[in-house]
Amino acid sequence: MTALPSPAPAAAPPPAPERTKHRLLELLKRGGPQTVQDLAVGLGVSVPGARRHLIDLQEQGLIEARTERPGGRGRPQHVFGLTDRGEAAFPKTYSTLCVDVLRHVQELFGEGAVLQVLDARSAELAQRLRDDLPDTLPLEERVRRLSEWLTGAGFDAVVEPGEDGAWYVVERNCPNLTVARQYPQLCRSELGMFVGVLGVPVTRETRIACGQGSCRYRIGP
Length: 221
Hints:
This protein has nine helices and six strands, in the order H-H-H-E-E-H-H-H-H-E-E-H-H-E-E. Strand 3 (157-161) and strand 4 (167-171) form a beta hairpin. Helix content is 50%, strand content 14%. It has two domains: 17-88, Arc Repressor Mutant, subunit A, CATH 1.10.10; 111-219, Trafficking protein particle complex subunit 3 (Muramoyl-pentapeptide Carboxypeptidase, domain 2, 2-Layer Sandwich), CATH 3.30.1380. By secondary structure, it is an alpha+beta fold. Helix 2 packs across helix 3. A four-stranded antiparallel β-sheet has the order 3-4-6-5, with helices on one face.
């Protein structure tokens, strides 16, 4: 009896799209800006396939395209690199570093020194923001611009109108949560910055660092 031929081994399934995108981000993180051809080789996919993933990541704001000359000479070529948002997708130890620095400040100079350091930082930020939020603008416009800046800084902020003429800024994320939980002076300093920028009373009603779902600020009378 003639033996039947063994079935051919099944082809390995293609990598999941999200896994491929993650590998693409890792290639850019480790190798810096690269062309679509280089990335296709690194991923083991076709150039059109790599381009599709690049377009998706661009739409998500994780990478950006720019034109560079290799080694500063030669024909310009399009390369892709990580944006700040793309960089933020990788683990960072900034919060640990910040906590360590504030702990040493407190041990060396006392608890009040921590607030002084954070207040100085907030005052500098407020000075920068005043250029974009001049007193000549209506309060609503200034609150909305502040909310946009906060969102860009990672706070995922939205503006809500109040029933009595006040406005509310609601921060749905706290990028500084690790620090804020150990040093509430950071939240006090943020509140002072809002007052310094807007020039009106500001009251914090809820706080993420206390276990609530958002940091909610009432702005105005």
